[in-house]
Amino acid sequence: MIQYLIIRIIESSGQTFTEATKVRDNQTNTAVEVNNKGKAIKKYEEKNKKSSRLFIFRK
Questions:
Q1: Can you give the residue ranges of every domain in the chain?
Q2: Tens of pLDDT along 16-27?
């Protein structure tokens, strides 16, 4: 079965945007709740002690 990452953004105006992105075979997605990008990577690495890479994509 194909996996999709669903991203929902609600702007301050109340307008909602929903996007579905197909997850590639060699890709995993993890959400962490922190205050900044540096802490996000550190928290991810602490939870996943494997030698994996974290990529942060911006639009």
A1: 4-47
A2: 999 999 988 888
